[in-house]
Amino acid sequence: MADKVLSYEERLKWFHEARFGMFIHWGLYAVHGRGEWVMFVERWRADDYAKTAWKFNPKKFDANKWAAIAKDAGMKYMVLTTRHHDGFCLFDSKVSDFTAAKTGAGRDLVAEYVKACREAGLKVGFYYSLLDWRFPGYFEPKKYPESAKKMVEQYHAQVRELMTNYGKIDILWYDGGWIAHDPNSNVAEFWRSAEVNKMVRELQPHIIINNRSGIEEDLDTPEQHVTASKPGRGWESCMTIGDSCGWGYVHNNPNMKTVTLLLQNLTIAAAGEGNYLLNCGPRPDGQIRREEQVRLHAMGEWLRVNGEAIYGSQRCSLSGGMLGVWTRKGNTAYFCIHRYPGTGEAIVPLVKTRAVSASILATGDKVTIRQEYNGRLVLGGLPKKPVDPHITVLKVEFESVPESITETDKAAWLSGSV
Ligand code: H79
């Protein structure tokens, strides 16, 4: 290979800078408007469901618009469902006729997506589901061994196509590797994933592979919650904007998260050196719904002011208490305040390191510093009302990498002698 082999840290460098990405769940299920599980949940006969493919002709789909929305939101990469559990490919595949290219749309939608990402300077991710509900062998491999074998072969062949036909791909986001018939079975063995991933790395030496093919690979993927992995391990939390049961378009999706909650999740991910992959479920015509667009735009407005606290963030050992979370870059720490105090002061206990200066990130206004008993750092002179309607960020410069005091005598704080 002409490309030199990168270390794990080097391969994940851009990913840690990025912190925020767009997940897109789009496929035939959008036509039904009841989420991406509709075929299975409503038990559609395979040939009946397949008729949907002729109704899927997204005339208004413009991948450049998706990319523009992602960029405006401050996102640095996208991950698209090239094929979900229903088996319908948004790409042109030689080993399947159940594709956008060969049905109603008559286009390779993945090719359009890749081109748009690249032009917008966004990194490109492919979601691919190993399982395909159309194969009886997925559900009953002992009864239909030939079908199971064909499905595994399809996985190998289609991943090869995706890794060969679209230039440089930055993330391979597997899903659906679990085995329906036997939760105790060896996932990697069933799919022969080691072979596939070896081939992927030969074709795409820079790629980041997630942990859902039965092999840990590069990335942990908490779903619908934000939970940090061990330091040094890459992780990315994926989440829907609306209800958790639907990633694909849900016609009536009544519980859209607030911008504040979405930003809180982003800061929690950044505080744990992880990423936030936030999902959109475009309409069957390819347009991202307004409810999602307005939230993404508002997140972008916040990031344009406060992005310094997020992109490339490191972990910080200071306690956010009930006020919020800390991120860090070198000796500079960022207090992302989720619950703004009304007293003009934010109190941080057990700070070991000397603070040099502090300011409000959004305005540059000075914040006073007092370091007192029990390692309490009192950040004062704050406006009584939050500076930002969502999250106010305080930027604090320390003498060295800020550290917390470990309490050896657990009662010492009562007399102020920590
Ligand atoms: O692609 C998205 C989901 O379709 C997929 N992973 C994310 C990224 C996923 N597969 N399985 N699950 C998530 C968990 C399964 C949830 C289910 Fe249900 C409970 C499937 C059937 C019952 C949620 C509620 C979906 C349909 C009803």
Task: Give a structural overview.
The chain is an alpha/beta fold and 418 residues long. It is built from 13 helices and 15 strands. The chain has helices at 8-11, 13-18, 29-32, 38-41, 46-50, 63-72, 109-120, 136-139, 145-164, 187-191, 193-203, 259-271, 290-306, and strands at residues 20-24, 77-83, 123-129, 171-175, 208-209, 219-220, 234-240, 275-280, 324-329, 332-337, 346-348, 355-360, 368-371, 377-380, 392-398. Helix 9 (145-164) runs parallel beside helix 11 (193-203). The protein starts with 7 loop residues before the first helix and ends in a 20-residue tail after the last strand. The model has no long low-confidence stretch (mean pLDDT 97). Residues 25, 36-37, 41, 175, 223, 238, 245, 247 line the site of ligand H79.
Task: Tag the structure with descriptive keywords.
four-stranded antiparallel sheet; TIM Barrel; 418 residues; elongated; 13 helices; eight-stranded parallel sheet; alpha/beta; binds ligand H79; 15 strands; Immunoglobulin-like
